[in-house]
Design a protein that fits this description.
With 380 residues, this protein is α+β, with helices and mostly antiparallel strands. The protein contains seven helices and 15 strands. It has two domains: 176 residues, SH3 type barrels, CATH 2.30.30.100; 203 residues, Porin. Strands 7-8-9-11-12-13-14-15 form an eight-stranded antiparallel barrel. The protein has a six-stranded antiparallel beta sheet with strand order 4-3-2-1-5-6. Strand 13 and strand 14 form a beta hairpin. Helix 3 runs antiparallel to helix 4. It starts with a helix and ends with a strand. The N terminus is likely disordered.
């Protein structure tokens, strides 16, 4: 999987560029006169009055002193009775963002996996699958961000009390939200490879994330994995029968029986992902991530000859059944979810689940990972 590093960082750059303007700082009006520039008739909004009651309706009219919405009955709200107005959240934007990001990650994955040659037919469906998963994740995160969607108006009293963060969203303590987070992670990965080789590896490392906005961000992790994966099986790998019309019994009679022992020793691993977050309570949030992941393995294949057919040269068998060993990078598309709980103002703990898909299985090139773990995040 050559040049995977370049494709990982290239994908993140594309994701950052493709983010819509909605992730940048947004204006929150503190008067109905300013709100007139942000709101149009026919839009669906949530109005929170000074008593904390929320009302959903369609905008019928707005003036510097009042707002009329249809619930379907007409209701009039004076500026003195409104604390907050939010635009109804649509899932279309999130689905579109997820579609674009998923397609970009899929394209980068195809480029990375197919760098060795043009025989990439089985991989072409990866872009569509990744785009579809991204759209679903984006819609889910968009639904998670908030029942009311973007805040359009806050009364002057509320605006002074909550403050505004660098992301254009309110920070309830009146403090700036942190963009940079660093912390440790521990995970147990179940790995599946060709030849029915599978096993569990213990993973530990560090993860760093940077928030582009309150909802979107990018992250990278560097890890080390332990526990070798092994598999051994016996078979007739080669037959020395030369007659093309030979029977199966004759072919097997001139086929030596050998035991093949496969070993995969995991080493350093890395991943990079685009992340979307949604707040479900003041101290709990959920995050979905999509990106690329890879790990270095030392792989070996050892043959033990168990039987040599009569009349077959042992030297030839030894030449044909050669042991091999070397480094190889394995990886693929990364999809993951995590639930984050704020332990303190600066420390969060997040259980996570993730899946790495190495693409269509081919001989000598299958890779799947399913991981469960926990990560910490210290915000600066």
């Amino acid at each position: 999987m050559p040049d995977l590093h370049r494709h990982i960082w290239g994908t993140l750059a594309v994701c950052a560029v493709l983010l819509p303007q909605g992730v940048s700082a947004q204006t929150i009006a503190t008067s109905f006169a300013a709100l007139q520039k942000l709101l149009t008739t026919g839009e669906t909004v949530f109005v929170t009055d000074t008593d904390g009651h929320r009302t959903k309706g369609e905008v019928a009219n707005i003036s510097p002193s009042s707002l009329i919405i249809l619930t379907p009955a007409a209701r009039t709200f004076a500026t003195t009775n409104v604390s907050e107005i939010q635009r109804s959240n649509s899932l279309k934007n999130g689905a579109l963002i997820g579609l674009v990001v998923g397609a970009a990650v899929g394209a980068a994955g195809i480029a990375a996996m197919c760098a060795d040659g043009p025989n990439c037919g089985p991989w072409l469906g990866i872009g569509a699958e990744s785009a579809g998963i991204g759209a679903a994740v984006g819609a889910g995160i968009d639904a998670l961000v908030g029942k009311g969607g973007r805040v359009l108006y806050r009364s002057p009293q509320v605006a002074r009390r909550v403050g505004i963060s660098p992301f254009g969203e309110e920070d309830m303590q009146g403090q700036s939200a942190s963009r940079l987070e660093v912390g440790p992670l521990v995970r147990l990965d179940q790995v599946f490879m060709e030849g029915d080789a599978r096993g569990s590896t213990t993973v530990a490392g560090v993860v760093t994330s940077f928030r582009i906005s309150k909802t979107y961000g990018v992250e990278a992790e560097l890890t080390r994995a332990l526990n070798r994966i092994e598999r051994s099986y016996e078979a007739r790998f080669i037959s020395y029968m030369q007659d093309p019309d030979a029977t199966l019994e004759e072919i097997e009679r001139l086929a030596p029986i050998a035991r093949r022992s496969l070993a995969y020793v995991p080493g350093l691993g890395w991943s990079a992902a685009f992340v979307a977050r949604g707040q479900v309570s003041p101290r709990v949030s959920l995050a979905a991530r999509v990106g690329l992941s890879a790990r270095d393995y030392v792989e070996s294949s050892v043959y033990t000859i168990l039987s040599i057919p009569e009349g077959v040269d042992a030297v030839r068998i030894a030449r044909d059944f050669r042991d091999s060993s070397g480094h190889r990078t394995r990886g693929g598309l990364l999809f993951g979810f995590a639930g984050s709980v704020a332990a303190t103002d600066h420390l969060q703990v997040a259980p996570e689940v993730r899946f790495v898909y190495g693409g269509p299985a081919r001989i000598g090139n299958k890779h799947r990972e399913f991981g469960l773990g926990v990560r910490g995040a210290w915000s600066f």
